[in-house]
Design a protein that fits this description.
The protein is an alpha/beta fold. It has 10 helices and 15 strands. Strands 3-6-9-12-14-15 form a 6-stranded mixed sheet. It has a 5-stranded parallel sheet with strand order 1-4-7-10-13. It has a 4-stranded parallel sheet with strand order 2-5-8-11, with no helix packed on it. The longest helix has 28 residues, at 63-90.
Length: 297
């Protein structure tokens, strides 16, 4: 019986191998030249450990161990990033995409990201505090860091956004979609997000590539900051801005949808649940959903 099953399995493997001769886009065998997804995620986890060192440690830490422990994450993260950035930058599909061909560029980008870690840690500290202060159910800062999907998503976003700003292909999206799968929060790495940002609950939130979000903004679950539907290459797409701007101290409640690159939500506004907006509102607005439209106050 075992030999029969092995024969059947060998025949099936032959069918799978034969399927690679169909010339489909997914048939590429040049994976050695592509970024390795597992390595990208491993590098991300080393960087996350540096951001919250005590929360990832397996034993007690003190000042004498701090440099050694930081180094134990920074070195592998740097090594993985350099290799994966190099792969992404030299892959055939990106050779005409404006990616620098300087062989030292991957090293420069990776070192630049490490150089930014102290500043990123300061920003993430404000995100964590915003989550703790913004959720009465939060029992402690530790609970927020360990368990809140907003912190998972924003930690990854702060890292991925740095790589996106440097024009690194593919890696930022791999990181962002990994965080999306874990947290239920979909943030494009291109989105510009200010300090003290918090997403309460988080499931189903979508933040598009050209969103600009100010400081002390709070979103609830199911919020979409998206684009109006445009054909690829259309004039609206070519303008560069497809997603809304959210100014400082705005709160957007569950299920609200705000679309369009010309849409600006003024500072201090409150957008109610299930509101649909494709036009700007002035600072201090209160927008609520009423049947087939919305009301302002």
């Amino acid at each position: 019986m075992a030999s029969q099953r092995r024969s059947e399995l060998e025949a099936l493997i032959g069918d799978v191998v034969a399927s690679y001769g169909a010339g489909r886009l997914i048939d590429s065998l040049s994976s050695a030249h592509l970024p390795n997804k597992r390595q990208v995620i491993d590098g991300l986890y080393h960087l996350k450990a540096v951001m919250y060192l005590g929360y990832y440690a397996t034993g007690d830490l003190d000042e004498s161990m701090l440099r050694y422990t930081v180094s134990s994450h920074v070195y592998p993260a740097h090594e993985m990033l350099v290799e994966q950035i190099r792969r992404a930058a030299t892959y055939e599909g990106f050779r005409t995409a404006g990616v620098p061909r300087d062989p030292d560029w991957p090293e420069t980008v990776a070192l630049g990201l490490v150089r930014r870690i102290p500043e990123l840690r300061a920003i993430l500290s404000k995100d964590v505090l915003a989550a703790f202060q913004g959720d009465p159910a939060a029992k402690s800062i530790e609970e927020v860091i360990f368990s809140y999907p907003s912190i998972e998503a924003m930690t990854t976003h702060r890292i991925a956004h740095e790589l996106h700003r440097q024009g690194v292909p593919m890696l930022p999206r791999i990181m962002a979609e990994h965080a999306h799968a874990i947290s239920g929060i979909d943030i494009h790495p291109g989105a510009q997000i200010g300090e003290s940002f918090f997403i309460d609950h988080g499931t189903g939130v979508v933040i598009g590539e050209t969103c600009v979000i100010g400081n002390s903004v709070k979103l609830y679950q199911g919020v979409t900051l998206g684009a109006l539907s445009l054909a690829r290459g259309s004039q609206g797409q070519q303008s560069g801005r497809r997603h809304p701007t959210i100014e400082d101290n705005v709160t957007i409640y569950a299920g609200a949808t705000i679309l369009g690159g010309e849409t600006v939500i003024g500072a201090g506004s409150v957008i109610g649940g299930n509101v649909w907006l494709v036009e700007s509102v002035p600072p201090g607005s209160h927008i609520t959903y009423e049947g087939h439209g919305h009301s302002r106050s």
